[in-house]
Amino acid sequence: MSFIKLKEISAFRVIKVEKSHWKGWSDKDSKFFVYDSYPKVKPEGMEVRKYWVLECSEGTLELSSAQFSQMLEGCFVLYNGTAEPKGKRFTVKNNGKQGKDIRYWINLCYDQSANEDDFKVEAQTETEPAPMVEPPVTTEEKKVEINNIPF
To answer: What is the pTM assigned to this prediction?
Structure first.
């Protein structure tokens, strides 16, 4: 497996969801622990978090539960209640910070037919806004009785 980092990519397509596991750092032992399931007994003072491993078009990607739930939520909303990320494209955005302050957002691409090369462009060109269109003027007016309004 060749793991990739979110900062190295701007978009990816999910091939399959591999597995989930739990990770935690112990300050006392100065060790990083990985568990297949939530540990019943863990070192004192260690907080464990769930991570998901995804096989993607770019390589293998490890996401936190929060990032994975962002993906599922996007699929659920766009595909009428089906939260299936397999075969879907997602974009990766960050807050522009470095180190511990960096945060990533994973959003579903609405154009699923987009090519891989479309996401390698760093800056998008600005487009002019669409011209304002006036609504059609009608000469016919309808009189509404106040008693007929249902509230």
So the answer is: 0.65
